[in-house]
Design brief:
71 residues, mainly alpha, 5 helices, globular
Amino acid sequence: KRQRTDDLRVDMLTQIKGISQSKAKLLLNKWGSIAELSSASVKEITGLDGFGMVLANRILKTLNEEKEVKE
């Protein structure tokens, strides 16, 4: 069972397999928003500690799929 936080952005990111609350917060500290993060490159994400190629691709794929649904 996932633990809910008071930050919807963290909750959204932790739905992605491999993203913990601390990793979600790290991403948000660097990019500031889900929209900014979704336009980041795989190389930028893998530059962060604990983020590999597979996880970076999964993050971008998930966020960009959700963006297409909203448009």
